[in-house]
Design a protein that fits this description.
With about 475 residues, the chain is of the alpha/beta class. The protein folds into two domains: about 170 residues, Alpha-Beta Complex (Aspartate Aminotransferase, domain 1), CATH 3.90.1150.10; about 270 residues, Type I PLP-dependent aspartate aminotransferase-like (Major domain) (Aspartate Aminotransferase, domain 2), CATH 3.40.640. The strands form three sheets. Strands 2-8-7-6-5-3-4 form a seven-stranded mixed sheet, sandwiched between helices. The protein has a four-stranded antiparallel sheet with strand order 9-10-13-12, with helices on one face. Strand 12 and strand 13 form a beta hairpin. Helix 5 packs across helix 12 and helix 13 packs parallel to helix 15. The longest helix has 21 residues. The radius of gyration is 23 Å and the shape is globular. About 45% of the residues are buried.
């Protein structure tokens, strides 16, 4: 295990320079990275994942032996890698379906009857998001869940009808918010408050969020923020935001798509009203994986309006077929249909890995990985790091903002070397070393490949590389 709280005391390059001197090994050497990997108490988890080969991610034929090597996969913020245990779980369900048909709903050879399949993923999910199991539901997909929950928790009045979100929230969130506002008869231009960074900055200051809530809170019905901002990688101070919102009588909801499985969360303790997330990023549940939702227990017995369906009624009375809805006391009341079995066991395959560690230990390694990445990137010209330099204000991801016209050229060079990262046009590459399966050696290799790519671009594009990388808090 990592020492408790060590992640909160790391200071990027300074920490690594001290460690480099202690080890008497150059910070930018492959030997240093190898030592870090050797010390990593979580290194054995990498063997539990399918790591893509370079030849399979290049997208074209390249006749070099390097293509048999593993790709550098720093894209868990878009799609997590497949846990090796997932295939077996999915095949087991296919076998039960083939052998038993509908009987599998109640009689299951692996003790996972489909009628209650999501029971197997609730408790571990609750541990990851900091919730009681009664506060968690596994259902639908992220934006569908956001709509379902906003039906209950966005209850505008003539005096209190506005929604506060971050500027440049993920487009799907904005679409959902805009459509909900219009559904209730309000003008989005008036009803949606979008809070952005200060002039010349890339991320939003917490004090500006709190000040906005204090100033506009009497008109705000819902504060809806990301846990981790998808573009910049900023980890918002969710507890402070929740406290400030509650003091002004606002409902608090969070989109945790880029936060769940990435950073420690304590939704119950923070008093968050609701949250939702996807499971295919850091939770590694596969493309289009099933979504998750949180509803605080304080709303377990309430008259909040909601959309209902068969899977939200008392399971012991479900088959009476009497058209009497008997609500489940907890987040599961928001389920309307039976969850997809194959998607649910795909999530189970990943949660079985998570159950063998803790979010605190994963967080500690994550801070080390991104700190090491940041230290090696320092001084390389051609980009700015958008993500906060304070480890407490970021997760696994560093977002690199390149000079205009440079990003796509660099991305092509990275891809040709079997590096999988994520781009956001026109100028940002998101780099996300993930603690469950990425290594310090991969971070070192990535930076060397990036350095060569930038040098090549500089040779072919006059004046395209002029500024030094820097970190903006």
């Amino acid at each position: 295990m990592y020492p408790k709280q060590m992640s909160l005391h790391l200071t990027g390059r300074k920490y690594y320079e001290v460690l480099s001197r202690e080890l008497e090994v150059p910070l930018d050497s492959s030997e240093f990275a190898a030592i870090m990997d050797g010390r990593d108490p979580l290194k054995h988890f990498r063997a539990k994942f399918a790591i893509p080969k370079q030849k399979d991610v290049l997208g074209h034929e390249v006749n070099t032996t390097d293509c048999e090597e593993s790709a550098i996969y720093f894209c868990g913020n878009s799609l997590g890698l497949q846990p090796l245990g997932t295939r077996k779980l999915v095949e087991e369900e296919l076998d039960v379906w083939a052998r038993s048909g509908v009987v599998g709903h109640f009689k299951h050879s692996h003790d996972r009857p489909w009628v209650s399949i999501d029971d197997h993923v609730i408790e571990e999910t609750g541990r990851i998001v900091g919730a009681k199991k009664e506060e968690v539901a596994i259902m639908n997909s992220l934006t569908v869940n956001l709509h379902f929950l906003m039906m209950s928790f966005y209850r505008p009045t003539n005096d209190r009808y506005k929604i506060l979100i971050e500027e440049h929230a993920f487009p799907s969130d904005y679409y959902a918010v805009e459509s909900q506002v219009r559904f209730h008869g309000y003008d989005p231009a008036d009803a949606i408050i979008q809070l952005g960074p200060r002039t010349g900055e890339h991320t939003i200051q917490t004090e500006d969020i709190l000040e906005c809530i204090a100033r506009n809170g009497d008109q705000i019905a819902l504060v809806l923020f990301s846990g981790v901002q998808y573009y910049t990688g900023q980890f918002f101070e969710l507890e402070k935001i929740a406290v400030a919102a509650r003091e002004k009588g606002c409902v608090v909801g969070y989109d945790l798509a880029h936060a769940v499985g990435n950073v420690p969360l304590r939704l119950h303790d923070w008093g968050v009203d609701f949250a939702c997330w996807c499971t295919y990023k850091y939770l590694n549940a596969g493309p289009g994986g099933i979504g998750g939702a949180f509803v605080h227990e304080k709303h377990a017995v309430s008259d909040l309006p909601r959309l209902t369906g068969w899977w939200g009624t008392d399971p012991t009375k479900k088959f009476l077929m009497d058209n009497v809805f008997r609500p489940i006391q907890g987040a599961n009341v928001y389920r309307v249909s039976n969850p997809n079995v194959l998607a649910t066991v795909s999530l189970l395959g990943s949660l079985e890995v998570f159950s063998r560690t803790s979010m605190e230990d994963l967080r500690a390694k994550s801070v080390l990985l991104t700190g090491y990445l940041e230290a090696l990137l320092e001084g390389i010209p051609g980009f700015t790091i958008l993500t906060p330099g304070d480890p407490a204000q970021r997760g696994c991801q560093l977002s690199l903002l390149f000079r205009p016209g440079l990003m796509l050229k660099v991305l092509e060079e990275l891809e040709n070397k079997g590096v999988v990262v994520d781009e956001r046009k026109p100028d940002v590459i998101r780099v996300a070393p993930t603690p469950l399966y990425n290594t310090f050696t991969e971070v070192h290799r990535f930076v060397e490949i990036l350095r060569i790519a930038l040098e090549k671009c500089q040779e072919t594009t006059a004046g395209c590389v002029e500024t030094s990388s820097s970190s903006t808090s």
